[in-house]
Amino acid sequence: MDNCLRVRLDICLQIVNGMNYIASNNYIHGCLSTDGVLLGEGNVWKISRFRYIHRVDEVCEGWEDIVDSDLGAIAPEAWYSGEFSQKSDVWSFGVVMNELFRGEGITLQGFTPGQLRTIRRKIDQKAIECCKTNPKKRPAFATLQHFIEKQCNKSRYSAANQK
User: Fold this and answer.
1) Residue 115's domain spans which residues?
2) Cα first-last separation, the chain
């Protein structure tokens, strides 16, 4: 994967757009993780692993299988009792976001070191919000989508000013 910050922001935006679409239609994915996000034609990132998707008002069937397969990306309430919700999907998205932006190998390409640190700090803070223990304190996907769009716009503005 390209280590450019702008590329990772775009991947994150595509994932949050998909998750916001799922949530806005009153569905719960239940199994979001980085290994369930696949690169499609034309650099389009697709969410997969819809085996456990269900409507908000339905009980998640087979939740024990999810917990066994994706322990690191499962919210505590889902892990302990099988209580999947849109907020447990937000937790999983926070884990995905953290995995996308971790590591020292992210290249600047159009950013100053200070700009890179600022964006990464904001992303880290948002990932922490997504992984709050109390599900009610986690942001909604629409809020996350707005946040990521804002970071993408800042990165585009930064690149334009570097030319």
Assistant:
1) 5-162
2) 24
Long-range CB pairs of 151-160 (<8 Å, 24+ gap) are 151/9, 151/119, 151/122, 151/123, 152/6, 152/9, 152/10, 152/13, 154/119, 155/5, 155/6, 155/9, 155/110, 155/111, 155/119, 156/6, 158/110, 158/111, 158/115, 159/6, 159/109, 159/110
Q: Are 148 and 17 in contact (CB under 8 A)?
A: no
Is residue 3 within 8 A of residue 107, CB to CB? The reply is yes
Q: At what angle do helices 141-162 and 5-24 cross, to 10 degrees?
A: 150
What's the token pair of residue 138? 């986690």
Q: What is the pTM of this model?
A: 0.87
Q: Structurally, how many domains does the chain consist of?
A: 1
Q: For the chain, percent helix, then strand, then coil, each to nearest 5?
A: 60, 10, 30
* pLDDT tens column, 22-60: 999 999 998 898 888 999 898 899 998 877 777 888 776
Q: Is the pLDDT of residue 5 over 70?
A: yes
Q: Which two tokens stand for residue 163?
A: 């030319």
CATH code, domain carrying 14: 1.10.510.10
